[in-house]
Amino acid sequence: MRYRVAVQGFSAFERSTFESFFRQAAHRTPAYDHVAGLAECDFAIVDADLPSAVEAVRAAGKLRVALVIGGTPGGPGLARMPRPINLMNLLCVLDELALAEAAPASRAPGRVRWGGPPPGLATRRLQPDPHSDFGADRGFSSAVLVEGDARFDHILVVDDSEIALRFIQSRLRRFGFQVHLARSGEEALQMLDGREFRFVFLDVMMRGMDGYQTCKLIKRRVQGPGRRPPVVVMLTSRTGTIDKIRGTLAGCDAYLTKPLVEDELVRVIGEHDEVFQRSFDTTVGGITAARPPT
Q1: How far is Cα 254 from Cα 259, in angstroms, rounded to an integer?
Q2: Whether the Cβ atoms of residue 20 and residue 273 lie closer than 8 Å to each other
């Protein structure tokens, strides 16, 4: 099953994030491909807070297959999600819509809404994070994705630049992670004493203890009973082979260059986090027929 999704409205930052997200979702089942035009889409994601976007979807005859973000309850659209958006939850909603479109006879008439999963659909619940302190990126979630009774893991981001910290934090929170910040290698080691982190995103160039030294100390730490060592991802603007070799010798598990490329960030997390990767696996079972083109 492959479905084409058009995004109408939203800021340039939000649209680019949607596009990157759908590139990753193009490798799962059901698969979602981002398309530019409303005329060719199977589903539309529309910014309800932008009347012109809603009107464009209405004029294209796509309100019946629209996922409406924000706005007031009771508005148009097949499905509705409130702000702030959690991208992993959005993927679940699209799966529900795909199931409804592929097997309409199996569902009772009426509006589809998130909250009650159809047969065969993996269930995910959201629990809000009351400690969010990042609000510069309008519309993206600091909510915490829950699968069963286990939250997505905590992530530690280490950088001596406040701008870089907030930039990375905003991207990781959209996927439901709980993100903690440290401004030096010394502070990061103290935080690791008190909490288990699944990932440590570690800048190479920092005042005082640099990223290579910090990574070595993290990897040499003795883990307590039942605790797993964190995955260390080195962040640097350097792309030279020598720098990557130094990171490998320090014990890092992955290496990302700045500015971060969203697809690479998702790839690295998926390679080291099975729960996250399962979000991009097949979630709707028992359906093999593709939806015919509209």
Answers
A1: 15
A2: no
